[in-house]
């Protein structure tokens, strides 16, 4: 087949395959255009999950009637200077509008300041109409109908209307976080309306906008981060370890105000929380990176969601170090949602009763309920009987005889009342030989003694492990690992760091390394796999965290077996000592496996349970 020049329509449809993947892509491009135009109010309307209709109205500077024709032509933009490395706007490629117009019915109506009337232009499947006068307010209205009608094969790859509408909502929320001074509204026949009022562009206002998007509970369960290094500044908020999500959807990252999805940032976030979260849980975060545009390439993909940093190791190191420092300096904090869940469990109606008993999912409770309803009331069989040691047989241990008078009680020795001002308060009792009940001035705290001590032992082991070089065991016969030359070069470049962790390697020809020592803690290990994993990680992130994480996992296992076991009775001094250690140990709100070590119940919540409020 001879070489021929593709038509402009075909070129635009090919470009649309990358720029316009789904209706959410259309919304993203149009909203970014509105923001670049200085809009303070943006209204989005959709129908049919965005496939039937997407309409974006803004109050920005608008487009002059003489420029509308250029606005729908490829590679025409007002946002890019002659320097491709100096990009300070969200859009810059000049591809979005012509790409959308090539696969849908596109209408643009706009009016600039000082113009007597607006102007309108239409593009249908790549065919551009003449510009005509139209009534319009200041700003721009872009309407996209029948998306992909010109390329019906693409419609087969779309998800349900509900899924596409949800993707649009996510785009609007993600963008709104970076622009708190802009009012966003999202409505349509296919969705519940969403309104995000404008707030002051201050740290407090930005946190208020984050709460609008991520929920009112996020600010109370988050930590502020703010640090810089070598021209890269990082700010934002990350969740405390006890406040987690089942997926990574509430992780937002921005580079110079641009919403991005970057594998490097996602990996660094996992690394920062490596030993404080369960493997199936994810932190919530909002992170803003500010740096010179020349230090980051945003022209990696037409969708502009991917970026490439000039120094990825710097960005990763800044991020991991800043977040870990914030977690370490935050003290001991429990998620407020833990207390809410606990209060909900005690509220009347928390257990629903149907034909077959309570529908609460607990078989033991269900069996007790059936026994109660079929055999009459028996305190010993009642599902509402006191728990554990507070049942009739165990109550004698708590029987102190006749109550003392007020004067006698005042004379009794009580724990140091100053402990009530501590974060975890004063220990009052041990329940079921595993749970420490403590009291502060305004709350009740329940501590899992095994989980808490496990974290304390783990942190002590890590400190001892990383305070000095890791003990190494010499291999009787050095093991040679064949690798690509590039991987071998990277490993040798990090040989000094690996040596500190007990792994001694040296170059062995052009495409191999020889391993002479391995960390003693690892015992017998698969040296070949370990070295290859390290080579892959260095290639991706320029770090050697894989080896450190393996050593930390061993320390975690040792801590689990070396901590206070469930069932051990503790004296009051021992309980208070454990609480004080928790207060001074980073990450002690969760154990090594990511489970909470304590729950705090505010006095106000307790009073509500008893109808006092």
Characterization of this structure:
With 613 residues, the chain is α+β, with helices and mostly antiparallel strands. It has 19 helices and 27 strands. Strand 10 (222-229) and strand 11 (232-239) form a beta hairpin. The termini are far apart.
Based on the coordinates given, report the CATH architecture of the largest domain. 2-Layer Sandwich
Average pLDDT metric: 81
The count of helical stretches stands at 19
- CATH evolutionary superfamily of the largest domain: MutL, C-terminal domain, dimerisation subdomain
Distance between the termini: 82 Å
Shape, please? globular
Radius of gyration: 31 Å
Question: Regions with pLDDT < 50 over 5+ consecutive residues?
Answer: 351-414
For the secondary structure, the number of strands is 27
The helix-and-strand class reads alpha+beta
CATH fold title of the largest domain: formyl-coa transferase, domain 3
Sheet with the most strands, sense and barrel status: 9 strands, mixed
Task: Kindly state the percentage of residues in helix.
Answer: 25-40%
The CATH class of the largest domain is: Alpha Beta
Proportion of β residues?
A: 15-25%
Tally of separate domains: 4
Main attributes of the structure:
Heat Shock Protein 90; 22% strand; 19 helices; nine-stranded mixed sheet; five-stranded mixed sheet; alpha+beta; Ribosomal Protein S5, domain 2; 35% helix; 4 domains; 613 residues; single chain
Give a short summary of the structure.
The chain is α+β, with helices and mostly antiparallel strands and 613 residues long. It contains 19 helices and 27 strands.
């Amino acid at each position: 087949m001879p070489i021929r020049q593709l038509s402009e329509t075909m070129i635009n449809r090919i470009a649309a395959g990358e720029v316009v993947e789904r209706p959410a892509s259309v919304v993203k491009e149009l909203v970014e255009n509105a923001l670049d135009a200085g809009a303070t109010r943006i209204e989005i309307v959709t129908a049919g999950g965005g496939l039937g209709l997407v309409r974006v109205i803004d109050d920005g500077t608008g487009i002059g009637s003489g420029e509308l024709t250029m606005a729908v032509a490829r590679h025409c933009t007002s946002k890019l200077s002659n320097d491709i490395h100096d990009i300070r706007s969200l859009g810059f490629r000049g591809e979005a509008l012509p790409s959308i117009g090539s696969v849908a019915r596109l209408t643009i109506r706009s009016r600039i300041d000082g113009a007597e009337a607006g102007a309108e232009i239409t593009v249908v499947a790549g065919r551009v109409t003449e510009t005509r006068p139209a009534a319009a307010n200041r700003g721009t209205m872009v309407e996209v109908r029948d998306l992909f009608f010109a390329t019906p094969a693409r419609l087969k790859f779309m998800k349900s209307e509900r899924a596409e509408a949800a993707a649009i909502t996510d785009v609007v929320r993600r963008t709104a976080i970076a622009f708190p001074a802009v009012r966003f509204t999202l409505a349509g026949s296919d969705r519940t309306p969403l309104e995000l009022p404008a707030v002051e562009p201050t740290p407090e206002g930005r946190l208020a906008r984050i709460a609008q998007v991520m929920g009112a509970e996020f600010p109370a369960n988050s930590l502020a981060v703010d640090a810089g290094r070598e021209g890269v500044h990082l700010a934002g908020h990350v969740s405390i370890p006890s406040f987690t999500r089942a997926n990574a959807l509430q992780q937002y990252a921005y580079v110079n105000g641009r919403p991005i999805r970057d594998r490097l940032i996602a990996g660094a976030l996992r690394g920062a929380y490596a030993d404080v979260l369960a493997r199936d849980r994810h932190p919530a975060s909002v992170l803003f990176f500010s740096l010179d545009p020349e230090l980051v390439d945003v022209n990696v993909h037409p969708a502009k969601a991917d970026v490439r940093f000039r120094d990825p190791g710097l960005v990763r190191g800044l991020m991991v170090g800043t977040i870990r420092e914030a977690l370490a300096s935050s003290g001991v904090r429990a998620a407020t949602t833990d207390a809410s869940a606990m209060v909900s469990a005690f509220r009347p109606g928390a257990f629903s009763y149907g034909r077959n008993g309570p529908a609460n999912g607990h078989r033991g409770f269900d069996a007790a309920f059936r026994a109660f309803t079929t055999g009459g009331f028996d305190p010993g069989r009642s599902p509402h009987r006191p728990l554990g040691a507070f049942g009739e047989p165990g109550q004698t241990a708590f029987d102190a005889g006749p109550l003392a008078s007020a004067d006698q009680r005042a004379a009794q020795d009580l724990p140091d009342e100053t402990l009530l001002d501590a974060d975890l308060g004063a220990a009052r009792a041990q329940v079921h030989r595993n749970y420490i009940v403590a009291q502060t001035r305004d709350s009740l705290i329940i501590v899992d003694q095994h989980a808490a001590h496990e974290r304390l032992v783990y942190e002590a082991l890590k400190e001892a492990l990383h305070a000095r070089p890791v003990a190494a065991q010499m291999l009787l016969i050095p093991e040679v690992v064949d690798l690509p030359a590039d991987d071998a070069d990277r490993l040798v470049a990090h040989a000094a760091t690996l040596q500190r962790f007990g792994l001694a390697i040296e170059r062995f020809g052009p495409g191999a390394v020889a391993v002479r020592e391995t960390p003693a803690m690892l015992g017998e290990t698969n040296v070949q796999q370990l070295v290859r994993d390290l080579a892959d990680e260095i290639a991706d992130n320029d770090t050697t965290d894989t080896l450190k994480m393996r050593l930390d996992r061993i320390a975690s296992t040792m801590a689990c077996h070396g901590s206070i076991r469930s069932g051990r009775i503790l004296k009051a001094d021992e309980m208070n000592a454990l609480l004080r250690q928790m207060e001074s140990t980073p990450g002690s709100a969760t154990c090594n496996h990511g489970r909470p070590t304590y729950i705090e119940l505010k006095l106000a919540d307790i009073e509500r349970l008893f109808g006092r409020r």
